[in-house]
Write a structure and sequence with these properties.
heterodimer; A: 445 residues; six-stranded mixed sheet; 18 helices; globular; B: 500 residues; mainly alpha; Arc Repressor Mutant, subunit A; two-stranded antiparallel ribbon; binds adenosine-5'-triphosphate; binds magnesium ion
Chain lengths: 445, 500
């Protein structure tokens, strides 16, 4: 009580909680109260099967791949390679898998090793000594969150646990209790109405739009066009040497023939996706005022060099067509693909359409933009243009700091778990043992 | 980095200090050096130049940074990492945090006090059967609703979002609120109330919920939201047009007032002319007065300012004592006395010096003068010279000038309205091109009865229909209103304004 007078009154009380934010691209972990996660490790991991070549021909990480359970679940005895030196190091016969799909954890077998890596290897802390707050997507299932609680209590022996929604946390990170959170991640784009710290489930919208954008970019690169042949997306791990070549000239490089045979399809797919992402991040963009071919052309070309040494200028038309996929789908694409993921404006429209009339102004005045996919050059401005066309008074909160933007969910968790008033909400080990799984949904609404 | 100190020394030709690399914290020599450091030399500077400080520097008063606030005064505070008990928790979870050592370990957790729970309303089975039966709600569903409201602390948006009663009918947010508040009100009314009646009333008031009103309000909001962009654009255009009309009106009226004042007000003695620029009544009143004034008396009654160029002045008669005798005398000698308004407080304003009538020959307003003189010229009248400026003649002349001016004004108005009609027609044509049904809109109550339309035209929900019919009507009325406008100018736009 005495301390209330001297402490600044922001309501913080740090209990050294840990915050774990699972995303499709990376797992973020750190101490509550910090402003950036201490550990950011890729969610994808490599694994080697003990008995070689049981069913080798599998394609991983491909959005269109059917959900084969056996693909996502390496044999329990398999050796895992996790972290910065996990999938990115080439190993003979190493497969790559990702426990996440559609923004949810689908395969819990590898979750403990992933968490363990982040906490013990990178942060060097003992989870048994810290309360742990884990994030979840708003559409997470009850079974999933109970499983997560089970892992944390039974395997990591945490003293207290809480699972919070990324939508709500992103709103908190922006300092808002009510907001319309637009989150563009790696696998999913979602629009979440949050009111007083609760998600309005009826207005929740999400779809696999980022995967479509990725697929579009990949198609654009690999298929031959009028002014260049299709580009080979070979990762640097498979290239022994290369010669500098002029712009647009076929690359001159030598492959590491020794590695080709031992490269699995899943690793190859992962590496190629990585190349596509790199390309997107350096040259991709969005036109602020909507699609205009002429204007896109005028934006000028950008130079990019691939690991093979092939380099070229990519015209504004190509660069901005990638970001445009977030906002409009061409009619031919729509015709050829009946269940195309919704565009961002369509997601927003359906989300807003589901919310109460009285709430709309509140939500539209507190739009929070978050997620790595929103870091596309010009994305925030384009979103503002699109939204102001539909709604009269829109205010978009988009952190300019890329870390804050991309890890808003983690940051919100960091804020929440260091609030004095939050500490009554933790599910304690005692409660877990007493009430079992049911307590998770009772406490974390 | 490390070289810099030595470099500076060699540049400044300062001999090496006894210990080389003083920027590196070497333990013992550093300590002795620092001990010798004279006050008033910044540490960094001392590290650079060593003990060879210019003697002058040390003599100056020591430059000091702002005094550091001495917080806590009582020396070092020890903090310790220790577990605490949170009173807001029902279990024995002990989390740890940093706390001042020595403070009470078992003291109440400072954030526990924020854990306030609202008083939930509960009812017994007996109360339910006695008071709360409702044909559209079962007890189970009511229980479910009350649980949800308790769970989400009365956040009805969230309650409605999470409301999923198995096999129940679809409930709107208003349904839920109505049921919840209805039950609460009934409970309070029928339970013994501890406390005064005012408190009870306040609680009841806080629990009122008028579903019909809320629904109507929502519908109204919805209709606002569902306006098409065209409708919004149309509304905006109409609003602009209205503003333009109002502005024109204001200017027109101002001009006319000025005209009236010049013509018949001060000079010809119209009773006070309102300077206000609005009001249908005022305008009508003025018009009446003006006509009367022109035809009848032109005596100045309450002149506003005395004419500056009066030459002869008669003493002002005492206005109150105008007896019958003096009236007869005046009539005999053709004396016209000005009557001072009793209510006017300013004596100066009331004073009218004697003046020659010829000084008060009516002049057309400066802006209209060329056209008026042209007009009179066409009629073969010279308005610059009045041969016999008798009272009657002056009055007649003033009337003439006034009539001429009015004619000119009317002509102007006609031209303006003609042009307005042109633009409206063009707009109509454009609109017809897009939407066919609007052009031949059937007669609506709006057309028949202005008053009714005024009454319920306020709802913006209706605004759309009002808009379209209004534009149709204004087209049809175009001709008529034009002929009227110069006389009853303030009326039209005012009515239109109300319809909005
Ligand atoms: N500068 C950038 N420009 C474009 N895209 C970027 C940029 N930086 C990161 N990204 C993309 O952001 C994505 C990762 O975003 P984020 O970390 O929010 O996803 P996630 O939370 O892990 O995934 P999800 O929310 O789908 O589970 C990657 O696909 C990456 O390509
Ligand atoms: Mg995410």
């Amino acid at each position: 009580m005495q301390s209330t007078s001297t402490k600044p009154n922001y309501g913080g009380d740090e209990v050294a909680a840990l915050v774990l934010d699972f995303g499709s691209s990376s797992l973020r972990a750190g101490y509550a109260g910090d402003d950036t996660p201490k550990a950011i490790i890729p969610t994808s991991f490599g694994y080697l099967e003990e008995e070689a070549a049981s069913n080798g021909d599998v394609s991983m990480g491909d959005a269109s791949a059917p959900e084969g359970e056996q693909l996502q679940a390496p044999k329990p005895k398999a050796k895992l390679y996790i972290g910065q030196n996990g999938p990115s190091l080439w190993r003979r016969g190493m497969h790559v898998a990702n426990p996440m799909n559609d923004g949810l954890i689908q395969n819990f077998d590898t979750v403990p090793p992933l968490i363990n890596h982040a906490l013990s290897e990178v942060m060097r802390c003992n989870a048994a000594e810290h309360p742990v707050l884990v994030t979840e997507a708003a559409w997470n299932t009850t079974a999933n969150r109970e499983r997560m609680a089970e892992i944390m209590f039974e395997e990591f022996q945490v003293p207290a646990f809480y699972i919070a929604n990324t939508g709500v946390l992103n709103a908190f990170a922006a300092g808002k209790g009510s907001a319309l959170v637009i989150d563009i991640g790696q696998s999913t784009a979602s629009v979440t109405p949050v009111v007083d710290g609760f998600v309005l489930r009826k207005g929740l919208q999400h779809c696999a739009l980022p995967q479509l954008v990725h697929a579009h970019a990949r198609h654009l690169l690999t298929s031959p066009s009028s002014n260049r042949p299709g580009i080979q997306l070979l990762p640097h791990q498979l290239i022994a040497s290369k010669m500098p070549v002029d712009v647009g000239v076929p690359p001159r490089f030598t492959l590491r023939e020794d590695r080709i045979a031992g490269t699995t399809d899943s690793w190859r797919a992962w590496a190629e996706a990585h190349e596509v992402d790199e390309w997107i991040q350096s040259v991709g963009g969005c036109l602020v005022q909507g699609w205009n071919e002429q204007f896109a052309q005028q934006q000028g070309p950008r130079h990019y060099e691939f690991p093979t040494g092939y380099n070229n200028y990519f015209t504004g038309l190509e660069r901005f067509a990638v970001g445009e996929q977030f906002f409009t789908h061409s009619t031919q694409l729509q015709a050829s693909n009946p269940n195309l993921p919704k565009t961002i404006p369509a997601l927003i429209m359906s989300s807003i359409g589901q919310t109460d009339l009285d709430l709309r102004q509140v939500l539209l005045g507190n739009v929070v933009l978050t997620g790595g996919g929103s870091l596309f050059a010009g994305f925030a401005d384009r979103l503002a243009t699109e939204m102001s066309r539909q709604f009269p008074h829109v205010k978009i909160h988009a952190p300019g700091n890329p870390t804050e933007r991309r890890y808003g969910g983690w940051l919100g968790g960091s804020i929440l778990a260091s609030l004095g008033t939050f500490h009554q909400l933790w599910i304690s080990k005692e409660e877990w043992q007493e009430h079992g799984k049911a307590i998770v949904s009772q406490r974390c609404k | 980095m490390a070289a810099s100190a030595a470099d500076v020394r060699s540049i400044l030709a300062i001999p090496e200090p006894p210990v080389a690399g003083s920027s590196q914290p070497t333990k013992k020599p550093q300590g002795s050096e620092r001990a010798k450091k004279p006050d008033g030399i910044p540490r960094e500077l001392y590290a650079l130049i060593g003990p060879h400080a210019p003697t002058l520097a040390a003599q100056f008063t020591k430059p000091r940074l702002k005094q550091k606030p001495n917080l806590g005064a009582g020396g070092r505070v020890k903090w310790e990492w220790r577990p605490f008990k949170n009173g807001a928790r029902s279990d024995g979870l002990r989390l740890s945090h940093w706390a001042k050592a020595g403070t009470d370990t078992e003291s109440e957790y400072q954030f526990a006090k924020y854990n306030v729970q609202g008083t939930p309303y509960v009812y017994t089975q007996d109360e339910y059967t006695r008071l709360l039966e409702d044909s559209s709600w079962t007890k189970e569903e009511t229980d479910y609703l009350f649980n949800l409201v308790r769970e989400y602390d009365g956040r009805f948006f969230v309650v409605h979002d999470r409301y999923e009663y198995p096999n129940g009918p679809r409930r709107s947010l208003e349904d839920l609120k109505e049921r919840y508040f209805g039950v609460c009100r009934k409970l309070i009314r029928n339970r013994p109330w501890i406390g005064d009646e005012a408190g009870k009333k306040a609680v009841l008031d806080s629990l009122t919920f008028d579903k019909d009103r809320e629904v109507a309000r929502k519908n109204y909001v919805a209709s606002l939201e569902h306006r098409t962009p065209e409708q919004i654009a149309e509304e905006d255009a109409l609003y602009l047009e209205l503003e333009k009309l109002k502005e024109n009106e204001r200017r027109f009226k101002k001009d006319r007032d000025e005209l009236l004042r010049t013509l018949c007000g001060i000079e010809s003695g119209l009773p006070d002319i309102h300077a206000d620029e609005d009001g249908l009544a005022g305008a009508a009143f003025e018009t009446k007065r003006k006509k009367k004034g022109v035809v009848g008396s032109v005596e100045p009654q309450t002149p506003v300012t005395p004419s500056a160029n009066t030459v002869i002045s008669l003493p002002q008669p005492q206005p109150k004592k105008t007896s019958a005798k003096s009236a007869a005398y005046d009539a005999l000698h053709c004396i016209v006395r000005t009557e001072v308004d009793q209510t006017s407080s300013s004596t100066k304003a009331a004073h009218v010096p004697v003046h020659l009538r010829s000084y008060k020959v009516a002049q057309p307003k400066a802006a209209l003068a060329p056209r008026v003189s042209q007009l009179l010229g066409e009629l073969g009248i010279s308005h610059t010279r009045l041969v016999m400026p008798t009272r009657d003649n002056l009055a007649k002349f003033a009337a003439l000038i006034d009539a001429a001016q009015q004619l000119v004004e009317i002509k102007k108005a006609v031209d303006k309205h003609d042009q307005d009609i042109q633009t409206t027609k063009a707009r109509l044509a454009a609109l017809r091109g897009e939407t066919v049904e609007e052009g031949d809109a059937p007669e609506t109550p709006m057309d028949v009865d202005d008053g009714a339309a005024d009454a319920d035209g306020e709802g913006d929900g209706r605004a759309q229909s009002v808009m379209s019919t209004r534009s149709a009507r204004s087209r049809r009325q175009g001709r008529r209103s034009m002929s009227v406008s110069s006389v009853d100018t303030a009326g039209g736009p005012n009515k239109r304004q109300k319809q909005r």
